Amino acid sequence: MSEEVFMFNLCSVGPYVVNNANLNAVTYNINWNTILPHKYSKFEVSCNFRSNAYIPGALSTAGIVLTDVGFIGINFGKTDIFEGGSTSSNIAMIYPIVTNAIAALNYSYYSCNNNDNCNFTMDYPQSGIITVTLKTYAGAAMANMQNYNLQLSLTGIVGPNIGKANLLSFEKATTY
């Protein structure tokens, strides 16, 4: 049996955005029924993240680059995310990339890829409203966050439907 992989892009200016007034806490409205089949109750998830470049506008700020390292957190509502046996919304670490060795020409962006972070397992999402948060290790908002794209790769886990997601397997898909 081949694996089914579902790719999903969350862009901070995309069609699913409900609120992006603060790019460190963007809220999306997702109709999971149109993306994920109910035959799976759990998914293995990996992610990639890339922000637009941070390019300081004035000559006096040339060479200033992003320096924060932090976490991508997602609030999936009632969905459980399992990372080493605990429920958490921190799904990945993000870090700045500096593009030039000449300080006056530097620009930077936030990034992570599926090789930087461990995959995690999550239950079928229970809520259509999710919020992506971007915070430093200390819990503060990431500095100078630009628009971004967060790509989630969800692989359906074959096995018995157990837990709360089993209730959803009998519902008909709805459209909004």
SSE order, as H and E?
Answer: EEEEEEEEEEEEH
Number of beta-strand segments: 12
The percentage helix is under 10%
Largest sheet: 12 strands, antiparallel
What's the tally of helices? Answer: 1
Distance between the termini: 33 Å
Which parts are unreliable, with pLDDT below 50 for 5 consecutive residues or more?
161-176
Mean residue pLDDT: 80
The number of domains is 1
What structural class do you assign from the helix and strand content?
A: mainly beta
Overall shape: it is elongated
In percent terms, what proportion of residues is strand? 35-45%
Overall radius of gyration:
18 Å
What would you note in describing this structure?
The chain is mainly β and 176 residues long. It has one domain. Strands 1, 2, 3, 4, 5, 6, 7, 8, 9, 10, 11 and 12 form a 12-stranded antiparallel β-sheet that branches. Strand 6 and strand 7 form a beta hairpin. The longest helix has 4 residues. It starts with a strand and ends in an 8-residue tail after the last helix.
Offer a few descriptive terms.
twelve-stranded antiparallel beta sheet; 2% helix
Task: Give a summary of the structure in a few sentences.
The protein is mainly β.
Map the helices and strands.
Layout: E1 5-11, E2 17-19, E3 25-29, E4 42-51, E5 70-75, E6 81-83, E7 86-87, E8 90-98, E9 108-112, E10 120-123, E11 129-136, E12 148-156, H1 165-168
Antiparallel strand pairs: 1-12, 2-3, 3-11, 4-9, 4-10, 4-12, 5-8, 5-11, 6-7, 6-10, 8-9
